[in-house]
Amino acid sequence: MTALFLRDLKLSIRAGGGALIGVLFFLTVVAVIPFGVGPDLKLLSRIGPAIVWIGALLAALLGLDRLFQAERDDGSLDLMLTRETPLVLTVLVKCCAHWTATSLPLVIASPLLGLFMNMDETAIGATALTLLVGSPAITFIGAVGAAVAVALPRGGLLVSILVLPLTIPVLIFGVSATYAAVEDPVPFLPPFLILTALTLFFAVIGPAAAALALRNASD
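^ Heme exporter protein B, sequence as received from the core. Prediction below:
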């Protein structure tokens, strides 16, 4: 499993620019918002956490179609299906490697992008924390879409269409928890715990559903 994690980590970084493409796209999405809404610093500060979360969500969707594509192209997907190691565990390891290579850099870059939106220290810290907790759920959900579309010739767009609606609850509670940390009357813990529960839920359901879809695609 360690060798598989390291292999997938290298492939995720090399394929299509990996983390660099995601961070650049994240930067582009956040950077153009001030040009659209104008120089109102209070407005930017108010909508900043939501914009950073939306940018991170869209950037995380970029490379999901390649989660199983390399194995499909070189034929190693059939070997994955016939190994003694449970396929669910293999998918889980691949998801962790993909998150480390593509989504973790977005979490690291989010404080810098928060400065572009005139966010204060509390909002920047809360946004980074909620992204750290919530972004794995996006990867686990995306694994299901990637497994469903792995046999299709142009599955990249289909993965985004399938995954985006399912990630809306993660986006809602991630942004809600961030705003709750900034606005004193609103408690931070309830939406943050729900966000954590969503990640744990999809960490169980996502790999299992992706493994089932991969088996059906190979038949």
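The chain has ten helices and no strands.
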